[in-house]
Amino acid sequence: MADALNGLKQGLTHYGDAGFSLFLRKAFIKAMGYSDKALERPVIGITDTFSGYNACNRSVPDIIEAVKRGVMLAGGLPIEFPVVSVHEAFSHPTSMYLRNLMAMDVEELVRAQPMDAVVLIGGCDKTVPALLMGAASVDLPAILTVAGPMITGSHKGERLGACTDCRRFWGQHRAGLFDELEIEEIGNKLAAGPGTCMVMGTASTMALVSEAMGMMLPGGAAIPAVQADRLRHAEATGERAVMLASEKLRPSQIMTKNSLANALRVLQAVGGSTNAVVHLAAIAGRLGFDLDLEELDQIGAETPVLVDLKPSGRYYMEDLFKAGGLTAVLREINHLIDKECITVTGKTLGENMAMQPASWPNDVVRPIEDPVHRGGGIRVLRGNLAPKGAIIKQAAATPGLLKHTGRAVVFTSLEDMADRIDAPDLDVNADDILVLQNAGPKGGPGMPEAGCMPIPRKLAVAGVKDMVRISDGRMSGTAFGTVVLHVSPEAAVGGPLSLVRNGDLIRLDVEEGLLELLIDESELVRRRSEWTPPSHTHVERGYAKLYFDEVLQAEDGCDFNFLRAKPREVLSATSG
Ligand code: FES
Ligand code: MG
């Protein structure tokens, strides 16, 4: 047993004397057929996020094989172990409701089982945040790789991608442009293979910001799932994990306040998913600091959107890969990022960038002087309707609606919206503002991606493409429209959003960062005195009880209160 790297001794449970405990542990691991020689190597755990329900992680078994090869090449012993795997489409009531369960699973299994370092393999939206949250809390040397984006499909010569085009074509089907047969045909082409949604959705965004934070080897975020480079990246990740184990470089040394700021910068520059704001807040909370929404806003004001990907642009992740991936983006915002942040390579972000091939002009990553959108992707809003903040993805919004005052048309829950949104007698005009209550962390539960409410059918048929929509829910990173999200505090805990009534006037001014309910304070006080919490938030048992008792609001990443770290001095802004 090597002394410096003795994974098998990690967290040794005591059955009698320590020698006997190790003897017992070795006896059981030898049931796997390992020799003593194999067990002398550093143990590298590999999280297995494959699941028959997780289409996006279909290729994870191949990635695991490549990681194992890398670990063996570098002299380690790879041991894979299953963790919870959450897919967007198969997670009732929401994938976000289950993210913390996965994060707890990752934390406890990495801590409980003997390993010197861990390779985290993520993919679908919630898996990367859950892996990083768990790894941040354990703080064992860890390195991330991802399943990678899907390649695009095609319908009648037009490129298709999950799931921006899912929404676009479904909207057109609702408006009567496609019959059942054609929409079925399109459904066969939207998710064209293994891997994650290939637009700038949450999975792509989290992969890119994780690489920017330094938790992934350079170049890994954008490689398509089916490309051979994906497996070479996985092999290199396994090799590097063995070095990390001996260097003892920990997630808390990599995911610092400054590298989180780099992540926010990249989030804005790639026009990333609003969901990343919630996930980065949760990761920050695990490391002992708050994600500063003012800082996000400030960074947004300085950072234009440079990456021309759907839903706000034209291209797909495979195009970003061919255009040089994240490095091409980082070079454009070179003067705005902190290049001293240490990464999983053991080198700084700046050193990593210098080692990547030179960038070249292309249409996908635009030069900073000719951006896709000048003002940054995400803007933070405040006002009496959102005292703790709300956000809007302005790059995906209709410019003419960014300053708008309108009459509220209120839906009190997701069910209420589903029941009435298409009713021919719904009192709604194109200038109105659709308001959805009780779609927040507790209300949804899990902040369902319902914030991008459908345009009421009678308006959609008349050609209305966008309206101002406001909720305490989230929006898929693949969606678009003038959609105000993450209103906090949420309606289900009595936030001002719960007090909005049909016909109230609401003012949105994105440039000013304002979201105001134009109602007398006395009337709000009266309404507040009549408010009662929704009954579904009172739960007696199981994970649901834990969830409703402990879940925090959007600005704290919807993590559980007891999972946040106590503030750590070492992570203050000055020490980075
Ligand atoms: Fe898995 Fe989109 S559904 S990444
Ligand atoms: Mg998504």
TrEMBL record:
Its EC number is 4.2.1.9. Residues 41-352 form the Dihydroxy-acid/6-phosphogluconate dehydratase N-terminal domain. GO terms for molecular function: dihydroxy-acid dehydratase activity. This is Dihydroxy-acid dehydratase. It comes from Sinorhizobium kostiense. It holds the Pfam family ILVD_EDD_N. The keyword Iron-sulfur applies. The keyword Metal-binding applies. Residues 363-558 form the Dihydroxy-acid/6-phosphogluconate dehydratase C-terminal domain. InterPro entries: Dihydro-acid_dehy_C, DiOHA_6PGluconate_deHydtase_CS, ILV_EDD_C, ILV_EDD_N, IlvD/EDD_N, Sugar_Degrad_Dehydratases. Keywords: Iron, Iron-sulfur, Lyase, Metal-binding. It comes from the Bacteria. Belongs to the IlvD/Edd family. NCBIfam families: PRK06131.1.
